[in-house]
Amino acid sequence: MIFEASVRHSSFKLAADELHLTAGAVGQQIRKLEESLGLSLFNRLPRQVQVTDSGMIYYRQIVPALEQICSASRSIRTQRRRGVSVTMVPSMAAKWLAPRLKDFVTRYPNVDVHINATQVPVSFEQEGVDLGIRHFDGKDPGFESVLLLADEVRVLCSPRYAAEQGLRQANDLSRTTLLHTSIHQSWSAWFDRFSTLEPKDYEQIHGIWFDQGMLAIDAACRHQGVVLTNELLARDELLSGDLVEPFQARMPLNRGYYLIYPKRRKLSDAAIAFRDWLLEEFH
Q1: How many helices (H) and strands (E) does the chain have?
Q2: Could you say which of 78, 100, 119 is where a domain stops?
Q3: What phi and psi, each to the nearest 5 degrees, are found at residue 135?
Q4: Number of domains composing the chain
Q5: CB 3.0-4.6 Å disulfide test: which of 72, 170, 267, 282 passes with 271?
Q6: CB 42 within 8 A of CB 69
Q7: For each successive 10 residues of the chain (283 residues), what is the average pLDDT?
């Protein structure tokens, strides 16, 4: 696993991050493997490692065996839990999935659903994850990526905050508090597109930073500022009237919500059922 991850990443450090080891431990294991095989597997470069020709031959020989081991492990886990494991960011899990999950459970009562809600991309192999919903551009050579929803951000705030700040156009945001989120870091692009403010002006606007979108949305509901988010995450707050769109200035992004799963993996019946349910919910 260590050798395979090092080849994929061309980096001992990135392989270590994936396997939750130190770069030193990875390098030590690679050296031991090289000593046992009697050949050099990598060329050590300043900021990366490059697999040698001999290393690539060895890699191609062991990959099928590793895939067979992983497949057998997944099969055992699937038989044990008869379920599906899905990873996504906490905001997506809380704001979109949780209210709809009852429908899936009702339709598939024998399928156990395991939700892995995290801000950090996980290793599908190590964590036993079947499916993921990721907010990105859809380009990852290791995954099948199916677009669920193209993203479009808009400015939202509470009705009271909009009235108090007199929000009628983009430049009015210069007197507000901007609520920044890790998933939608697009304020600069938004200002460049919809306002006449210079970067030096909008960069000085007071802000609060959140690592989860749902916390920023909650802060906006509590009249603490304006949030740049999408209709998907703020749907309930918009329907209830807790949030409003003070003016229409919507910006499409080159990212979206994608359903992803490893290309080389055969999905279990439970994972297929959840995948098809997700596609039905979005389309």
Answers
A1: 13, 10
A2: 78
A3: -95, 100
A4: 2
A5: 267
A6: no
A7: 80 80 84 86 86 85 72 57 85 90 93 88 83 92 92 97 97 96 90 96 94 91 96 94 96 94 89 95 87
